[in-house]
Amino acid sequence: MEKLRITTINEVLTQKAVTNPKIDDVEDGLQYYSALDADCTCIVSYDRNDFHFSDIEVLDAEEFLLKHVVPQSKG
């Protein structure tokens, strides 16, 4: 199972980011639409509050590692 994905940004995604009134920071919007376009299940960021508009899960690095990488003990 793929844990990390490098995504891309194109003109269409850029247009979505700059025209969405819910997005305060264009860079966050670019990351968000790039993640959606790549079918990512979450965004990893220490600025979780910046993604208040996100329809996908936003995790900090530790949460991501614990949820998706580190095996959970059964018991």
Plain-language structure description:
The two termini are 24 Å apart. This protein has one domain. The mean pLDDT is 91. 40% of the residues lie in helices and 8% in strands. The protein is mostly helical. It has helices at residues 11-19, 26-37, 61-69; strands at residues 42-44, 57-59. The chain has a two-stranded parallel sheet with strand order 1-2. Helix 1 packs across helix 2.
Keywords:
75 residues, mainly alpha, two-stranded parallel ribbon, 40% helix
Fold topology:
Blueprint: H1 11-19, H2 26-37, E1 42-44, E2 57-59, H3 61-69
Within the largest sheet, what's the order of strands? Answer: 1-2
Instruction: Give the number of DSSP strands.
Output: 2
* Straight-line N-to-C gap: 24 Å
**Alpha plus pi helix count:** 3
- Round the mean pLDDT to the nearest integer and report it: 91
Shape: elongated
Domain module count: 1
**Oligomeric state of this protein:** single chain
> Which blocks of ≥5 consecutive residues have pLDDT under 50?
none
- Cα Rg: 14 Å
User: Class by helix and strand content?
Assistant: mainly alpha
How large is the share of residues in beta strands?
A: 5-15%
Helix content: 40-55%
Which sequence of SSEs, written as H and E, runs from N to C?
HHEEH
Largest sheet: 2 strands, parallel
